[in-house]
Design a protein that fits this description.
Elements lengths: L1 E2 L4 E4 L2 E11 L1 H4 L8 E2 L3 E3 L2 E8 L10 E11 L12 E10 L6 E3 L10 E3 L5 E9 H6 L3 E2 L2 E11 L3 E4 L12 H7 L9 E5 L2 E5 L1 H7 L1 H8 L3 H6 L3 E4 L4 H13 L11 H17 L3 H12 L7 H10 L3 H13 L3 H5 L2 H9 L1 H14 L6 H9 L1
Parallel strand pairs: 15-17
Antiparallel strand pairs: 1-2, 2-14, 3-13, 4-6, 5-6, 6-7, 7-11, 8-9, 8-10, 8-13, 12-13, 15-16
Length: about 375
């Protein structure tokens, strides 16, 4: 936006469009001659037809270690003014990769300073990046999965300027993209500076990110234990947690979401994962994740799991979950099934004093006391 000396506002209007180009059979594209191109389907933005063009072996022989990516103007969907000659479009663009582990886009390079538009015409139909990324880095950083690479293109086509009189309008700040950039670091071996080893499985990570999200990791990586980590070439052994659970914990640390559990279709498997993830979050002091898991478990309390869930809530100081379990016990009409569960038997043996307090609380909550004699009779057996 520019304000002239005559207090007129020149507003540059744009139309935005996005297109994801999935390069299936990525492996088959390797080994082609430089200049070999793979083009996306045509998509329309701002009245113009566009395509993303991918060069798996670079444009020239000098660029064979790199992949090249360009945005290409195909033609005008509606000829402006009906005149002769090819279409001319002015646009901003961003070509970026989609990381399959997070589904988040990651900008690899920006055109010039990130704010300069380009004029696409018959003379210059394509703009992009001759050396978009080294092919080896692209593969090592995990952007290729199941023999497929996904490139996203964001195009903002500049429309004719609109001139109005009056004060300049207020400008909206662009939305934050820091979470997207953090998510793009997940599993990025090229920038990782620590390796976390969980039962033989290795996870590439970043000390600063771990320390920012977990006081326990901060103490381990920057406290007195740092020398031990450095002596082991940046490798840290993680005990007491399964790789799948740690993967979900790491995913939350980088993305602030629990999307890593979305692939679990079985409700029992998901409940077990949530319980283990809560334990891991408590161990590494990732408080927000612990609270999220606690609320999830509050919604999935069942007869056969309430006792085990209550014991875990007491062990990890989850007050909301503890109260929800007690409320469930106090109002349940299936007390026999609860008392026959393995979790109840373990809780009686491991936490006898807690059981006394528990039944006192439940006794105060019950509206009907008809089941109390049976409960105490069973506990005396």
């Amino acid at each position: 936006i520019r304000i002239s000396a005559r207090n007129k506002v020149h507003t540059m209007a744009t139309v935005e469009g996005r297109h994801r180009f999935r390069v299936a059979g990525y492996g088959a594209t390797k080994g082609a001659a430089p200049g070999h191109r793979v083009a996306s389907g045509t998509f329309t933005v701002g009245g113009f037809d566009w395509a993303v063009v991918f060069y798996p072996e670079g444009v020239t022989a000098a660029d064979m270690d790199f992949v090249s990516v360009y945005l290409e103007l195909k033609n005008a969907a509606a000829a402006a003014g009906g005149g002769g000659g090819g279409a001319v479009a002015r646009a901003f663009y961003d070509l970026r990769l989609i990381h399959p582990a997070t589904g988040e886009p990651r900008s690899v390079r920006w055109p010039m300073d990130g704010s300069t538009s380009r004029v696409f015409s018959q003379a210059f139909p394509a703009w992009g990046h001759l050396r978009f990324m080294r092919r080896r880095e692209l593969e090592e950083m995990g952007f290729v999965r199941d023999d497929r690479l996904t490139i996203e293109c964001v195009v903002n086509v500049v429309l004719d300027p609109v001139v109005t009189a009056g004060d300049a309008p207020e400008l909206d700040h662009p939305p934050s993209n820091i979470l997207g950039h953090l998510a793009g670091l997940l599993g990025d071996k090229g920038t990782a500076d620590v390796t976390l080893v969980v039962r033989g499985e290795e996870f590439a990570a970043h000390r600063a990110v771990l320390a920012m999200r977990s006081p326990v990791f901060k103490a381990a990586l920057y406290g007195p234990m740092k020398k031990s980590t450095d002596a082991n070439a940046g490798r840290v052994a993680i005990d007491g947690v399964e790789p799948a659970v740690f993967r979900a914990l790491l995913h939350f640390i980088y993305t602030d979401t629990t999307a890593a559990m979305d692939d679990l279709d079985d409700d029992d498997d998901k409940a077990q994962m949530i319980m283990h993830l809560l334990e891991a979050a408590d161990r590494y002091d990732v408080e927000r994740l612990k609270l999220i898991c606690e609320l999830m478990l509050c919604k999935s309390i069942a007869v056969d799991t309430v006792a085990a869930t209550l014991a875990m809530a007491d062990q990890h100081h989850c007050q909301k979950l503890k109260e929800a379990c007690i409320e469930f016990l106090a109002t349940s009409k299936k007390m026999e099934g609860i008392m026959e569960s393995q979790g109840y038997e373990k809780m009686k043996l491991s936490c006898p004093s807690f059981m006394v307090d528990l039944w006192e609380i439940i006794g105060r909550k019950m509206t009907s006391y008809s089941v109390i004699p049976n409960i105490y009779a069973r506990d005396k057996d």
